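INTERNAL TRANSFER SHEET
From: sequence group
To: structure group
Subject: Iron hydrogenase small subunit

Please process the attached sequence and return the structure record in the designated field. Keep the field labels unchanged so the import script can parse them.
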Amino acid sequence: MNTIKIMIDGAETEIVKGTTVLEAARDQGINIPSLCYLKGVNHSSSCRVCVVEVGPRLIASCTLIAEEGMKILTNTKKVRDARRTSVELLLSDHDRECLSCSRGGGCELQTVSNDLNIRKVTYTGEQSSREKDYSSPAILRDASKCILCGRCVGACGTVQTVGAIGFAKRGFDTVISTAFGRSLADSTCVNCGQCIMACPVGALTEHENISDVWNAIADPDKYVVVQTAPAVRVALGEEFGLPVGTRTTGKMVAALRRLGFDKVFDTNFGADLTIMEEGTELLSRLSSGQKLPLMTSCCPGWVKFMEHNFPDMLVNLSTCKSPHEMEGAVIKSYVAGKLGIEPQNIVVVSIMPCTAKKFEGAREELAHENMQDVDWVLTTRELAAMIKEAGIDFVNLKDEAFDHPLGIGSGAGAIFGTTGGVAEAALRTVFELTSGTPLDTVEYTAVRGMTGIKENTIELPDGKQIRTAVVHGLGNARKLMEALQRGEKSYDFMEVMACAGGCITGGGQPIVDAKTAEQIDIKAARAKAIYSEDEAQTIRKSHNNPFIKVLYEEFLGEPNSHLAHELLHTHYTVRSKY
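Return from structure group:
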């Protein structure tokens, strides 16, 4: 490994060649502030907050590659004054309603301002006119809070390759905009929310539905049922100061009961149901050789990405609804009958790690008898806000269990929350159904890990082979889809998740600031917790879930039955690429 020696604030240090000055300084424990820089996403050096002094010049350290013998000063008066000026100029054109901002207390601009000891804004004058876009059911844009750092543009365009937003106009009139200035709802946005996760301020947030849920809970004529996705329970604790990757399943259930929900169900049950339907669908397609590869449909961001960019391959998507939509349909049919409640009086609330689930919940295709399967979707962040609003001491809650009959989910359902989890859960069931004998080992480590594209050939007990691809991040998905179109790749089964690492880093999860994201492997910590959740279960295969068996025996008949298709399957919509 080639190394070089440089001087930082008078101290010599040896670093790897090609390292930026910002990275080198942070490795030495020197906190150089930054706003536009987001490792692996944005390296534009546009905010000028990270300047350092090299000779007579001030240079942005986030894009300055260190060179042999370079002498760098990070804490001179000239440097501090320049940083302060840059931040004050940003503040002069910023909506400083911090008390009512969704990012209050977690805003990187606020943190940098405090670190630089800025107590007043020196610069006053005309402020740019920037609009608010509330058109999307998933994501809100407040341009009055935008600092034009470009991190959202990098996340959307460079990482996800969606390109729904970008810079428009010039100079003082510069804005982040959709193509042709359309609303976000009319753009190619797939609602993944990775722009929210990248934004250092409150310019991008989820479309909040907290008041809608509070109103439903307060309505005496409504029976309000809540369900929670597997990725929520391994991230919710971060909003209450617990370490990244802490499992809080029991505390989460207890908190939901205290919020006033009538039933607390586990979306892991819906995941098990998905495996039964999708696994049967896969075996059917393998037998016929038609519509291969079968592509998973659990991720609504991926589904909308397909509708915009690869409409000719929509036939390859599984017709299965996503787990929480399946569960919503079952709640408003089977469970409603069990409870003796009219379905129209039941309100289903899904707690999801994903902003795209808000868009999904409103899709016309995901309704039955003029009722949406799911009425409201809240993110992990919104649930945390409700718990705090209710004054619940989350950390000290005693663990409680989910309600029956949809309160038992298998370990296979739990791992849906991380990349490779859907494929592994499906393989556990497909292997056993084709062999007719129990599996001794249920872990399929070949589909695990954070490699962007994982390819494997799995041999079934009957001698058949399943060529699999597991993909996370839409940039990786685009590469693979284009390779399929060119005939360079061929698979039988593909699992795709829109967000890097899967649902554990969804757009509705706790926001991690840029500096912390460099210090902690968020994906690895949350994924480890997901697999621990799986290992802690006594039932680890979807088809062994006793409540799944009862559901089919009493109501659905068998996987892919007529009633199952009516309630649990869907179709898709071709959308414009522009």
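Handover comment: The longest strand covers residues 465-472. Residues 37 and 365 are 40 Å apart (CA to CA).
Transfer complete.
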